[in-house]
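P.,

For your records, the input lines for the assembly:
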Amino acid sequence: MPLRKELSLALIFLLVVFTGCLALFHVQKMKQPMVLASYGESSMHLQPLGEGQDYYGQLEIPLYYLTGIEDRRQVTGIVLETPEGMEAELLGRPFFGGGNFYNEEPGMLFGRYRLVQVVVSLTYRGALPLDQAVLEGAVLLLEDGRTLEGDFGTWIVEGKIHQESPLEHWQSSGSNDGSSSALYRVKTPIILEGIDSHFQEVLEARYEVKVNGLEMDQVQGLALAAGENLRIESRFSGNEEGALARYFLRPKLSFVDEMGAIHELTLSGMEDYQFPYRTFDPWRITKMLWERRLGDES
Amino acid sequence: MSREAYGSLFWGLLLVSVHLNLGPLRLFPPFFGWWVFYLGVKALARHTSPLILPWTPKLALAMALLSGIQQAWAMMGLDASSLVAFVLLSLLQIGELVLIFEVFSGFSRGLSELDRPEEAATVLRKGRWYLLLATLITAGSMVTITQNNGEGPVYLGLMMVVLKIWVLVWLRMMKTWDGEPSSEGGSFQEENMENRGGL
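Structure tokens returned:
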């Protein structure tokens, strides 16, 4: 394939520049922190501070990001759009897996990357009980003045005022394989209205919930007598496309007691699926980062 | 040489260079411009004495395909700062540079065959100037885009527009010349070139 001399020189020069730019692109973008989408639903327990006074509640939620192993920048603040009466404050970077919760451990290491968790404290104080808050689009502020934006996912926070429940919690369990269960004992007769998760639509068939062996759409009208057990089992499967997302699912069970009062129970033990981390490895992280960088990052 | 061929090259490059949008749709998608350019290059390649290198039509066709992919990807929301956008843009710029230089070279070779060595040398000199400037602008674009330099790509883009206008003027002049003095007196003259398109 003949090429003219001057054209050959120009192409060699451009090839060198192009290769250098690709290397720069890698250094500058692939090593920059990238947030992980995080989908969670949680309840904020509200307490009235007194007759005619405000309601108060407090909740902590985690957010995650991946960054280069040598990146030691601290996250110093958070900008999160919250409903009136709610404030968000960054608590710090906790250690994974227990221990000293608010120390400055750098996070979990995966080859040349680290997974860092930051905890956001939400505080609500308002004249009316908090109904529901949908929290999206947080921006983390780094100590060097830069910001860290991206798809943080969605958190649904529901306000909940304490009321005597006809159900008594017995036990909950969760597993790294994505399955979990919760067992309740029925204290007084109830009729189930349904069970729901805000992220059912997002997660589609990958998230299954069964109540006493029944599918979600068969639950309505199920009557349970005092002394019976209520077992809720959930399973989360197929995590390839969600491997850079983390899910904190707490499905909500609705039922009517014998007095006709409607109760809503946010199920514990259904959250904290660890399996996305289990599937992390340096190669997969690199692949996912490239895909994210190539495609939908904005 | 063919007037039609240079006409196609002119209109092809013009369509590639003109950005007129109707909402999200580009009125003259670049792949259409490159297709017209490809027809022009193909016509030149058919000439009894090949004026351009044999792989040039294939490159023009590849440019049409590549720009079509870029357009489709952009409509699907390709982030302009992503790696794919950078690679596509770089490849398109390099391909354009090669094609245009080949057209200058081919035109110069045609003049040589007609025993017009001085004019041929002038055209080749113009082609080399184009090659030098386009190479620097393309390299500069790559660096500034990678560095996420906000204003750099804009200035370099403007410089590339000016350079393309200069090339379009030359392509127009090539079209008016078909190897022999025309009835309109439009023979290709060094003086004419210097006045209308000289750097």
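Two observations worth noting. The interface with chain B takes residues 1-4, 6-7, 10-11, 13-14, 17-18, 21-22, 24-25, 28-29, 290, 293-298 of chain A (CB under 8 Å). Confidence is low (pLDDT under 50) at residues 97-104 of chain A.

Regards
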